[in-house]
Amino acid sequence: SDLTTMLIACNITLSIANHLRSKNLWRNTQVNLSLSEEPSLNYWRMLVPMYL
Predict the structure, then answer these.
(1) The organism sits in which domain of life (predicted)?
(2) Does position 35 have pLDDT exceeding 60, yes or no?
(3) Which structural domain range is residue 16 located in?
């Protein structure tokens, strides 16, 4: 039980850290992105504004 709680807390911490790193990466690179119709870029353009 305690181990499960620790693992969950660790996963949440890692998720937050990864999210913050992704957000910083997005802010650093969004100026350089072209308006290409690549699906992954469209996906990020949809997803990222929710976190800005």
Answers:
(1) Eukaryota
(2) no
(3) 2-51
